[in-house]
Amino acid sequence: MVLTSAELGHRVAQARQRAGLTQIELSQAIGVHRSVLAKMENGNRRLTALELAEVADAVGERIEWFVQEVPPAIVSHRNVTDPGEPSPRIDTEVERRARDVEFVARNDSGFRDRVRRPPEHPMPENGEEADELAERARVLLGADPEGPLCDLGRTVVRAGLLPFVIDLGTDAADAASVLLETGAVAVVNGDRRVGRRRLSLAHELGHLLVADEYTVDWRIDGSSSRDSREQLMDRFARSLLLPDASLREAWRTWAGHEDDSLRAATVRTASRFRVDMSTLARRLAELGLVSGAQAAQVRMTRTTRADIVQYDLVNADELAESQLPREYEAAVLRLFTSERISEERAVDLLMGTWSTADLPELPRLNESAIWQFVS
Q1: How far apart are the first and last CA of the chain?
Q2: pTM to 2 decimals?
Q3: Among 1, 233, 285, 359, which is 20 to 30 Å from 66 by CA?
Q4: Which of 287, 201, 187 lies closest to 241 in space, CA to CA?
Q5: What's the CATH number for 106-241?
Q6: What is the mean predicted confidence (pLDDT) over 279-289?
Q7: What was the pLDDT predicted at 195?
Q8: 1-68 CATH
Q9: In Å, what is the CA distance from 89 to each residue of 8, 18, 172, 184, 216?
Q10: CB of 174 closer than 8 Å to CB of 188
Q11: Could you read off the pLDDT of 230-247 as tens digits, one per residue?
Q12: Which residues of the chain are in CATH 1.10.10 domains?
């Protein structure tokens, strides 16, 4: 793709705004006068390759961001609540992951065969339909129809959803997802606790199943003012993680003993299904298993170290930042070992979770072999 000066300049301006820089700040960073940068951004002066590299370094983008098309779903839906303002950080992270996944999919047939989007399902119109969609999702994932969903990060890949966990901070969105030709990408905010991360990923799976092209979810399950579509996706996520029959059985078992308190039943149930207390409280209330006052007590409960020992609770972490989808890692390694990408490109695609020392050793290439690379 060949960009005009105006198109390239527009992308420079976009990148500068996303980085929160003024024209003066960026011009100083790349060593030109502000008026020169202004001409670059409005298309009256074309950037040299060196200047473009300096701009990319200053704004924290790869050069390919300036010269390759962005996935259409991201373009059409980015920052719709605040047009013209710098995109939230999660937009940037989703776009980067989408570009990397699309690159790997284009160049590795095994990845394309393994990671595919599921058939589109109709959007639920009420709570019962959201529960039914969750039941179908469990079948699609090959999961126990009623048991806890463990290792959710690996399980959702069976539906074509590739999760990437990134610490975006307390003020950023919970999660976002985007549909691609090959599967979909979800970014989950690693700042959240594990139960919240699992709920966020389950929520993004719901968006994939109903084929929402691009979604940013700022506070999942967090407000009664959320629109009905998002509330139904919340319901889907709760139902996926806390299926009706097994939740009822567990709750009645642990809450029905005279020597067992509401608190004990709460910490044991939350541990079994690996959910946060807010999610458990909402699900128990919508199934009529607790009163409003009891739901409030469940929501305020915190699991202690003594609880973990006393009740032999599950204390497993999931969706850690350092973990990438295994299918994605395997595809990158195939590209590297087949000498289709360089060592530097492999480490870049592995997003800082691998070093060059972690990669398998390859025989040295002669000079003519450089043309085999696609990166």
Answers
A1: 15
A2: 0.81
A3: 359
A4: 201
A5: 1.10.10
A6: 95
A7: 92
A8: 1.10.260.40
A9: 22, 8, 7, 19, 11
A10: yes
A11: 899 999 999 999 999 999
A12: 106-241
